[in-house]
Specification:
mainly alpha, two-stranded antiparallel sheet, 2 strands
Length: 180
């Protein structure tokens, strides 16, 4: 494992933990908001805005790196389950190249937005106060950028194995539901 792969592995774990913490805090926050509305007839101010701009962003996007490293995205093997290991590696490598291009474009676009919104100190009106949301804009380019690097490394590894037979392909998904 190269240093970059090790670093991406550690980053993916940190991002996954951050997502788990965000999800936990979101559940507590929403639970307290519901209890406050029901028992005290007073909701917690800005719950919707905080859930929308922070919790959901931190819950959804950071885990994509962890999922990509382990190749746990949804995969249908209807036409590929009988391919040889080398052919499957070539297909996986080609898919990783296309994915890296696509996610790389997402990285670039979200980075531009993050830079623009940071420069203007983007805020959301939350009734009684202004909620700064520009920091949450950085979650997407960080997550997508790391995922792009992972896909590039996976493409190199898979294509090298598929074409030359040297090295090892990236880990293939195991388990799951098999429909014959």
């Amino acid at each position: 494992m190269t240093q970059l792969e090790w670093l991406l592995e550690k980053l993916s774990t940190v991002l996954l933990v951050i997502a788990g913490i965000a999800m936990t805090i979101m559940m507590v926050h929403i639970g307290l908001d519901i209890a406050s509305k029901t028992l005290l007839h007073k909701p917690i101010v800005a719950t919707l805005e905080i859930v929308t701009w922070y919790y959901m962003v931190f819950t959804i996007f950071p885990p994509v790196v962890y999922i990509q490293i382990r190749k746990k995205h949804l995969m249908v093997e209807l036409f590929t389950r009988h391919l040889s290991r080398e052919k499957m590696a070539v297909l996986e490598g080609a898919t990783a190249v296309l994915g890296a291009v696509y996610v790389g474009i997402l990285t670039w676009l979200t980075l531009e937005v993050a830079i623009e919104q940071t420069a203007t100190w983007e805020i959301q009106d939350a009734t009684f106060f202004d909620l700064p949301i520009w920091p949450a804009r950085w979650v997407l380019p960080i997550s997508f950028g790391a995922m792009t690097l992972v896909m590039i490394l996976q493409a190199i590894r898979d294509l090298t194995y598929g074409v030359t037979g040297r090295g090892e392909p990236t880990q293939q998904p195991t388990g799951g539901i098999v429909i014959d």
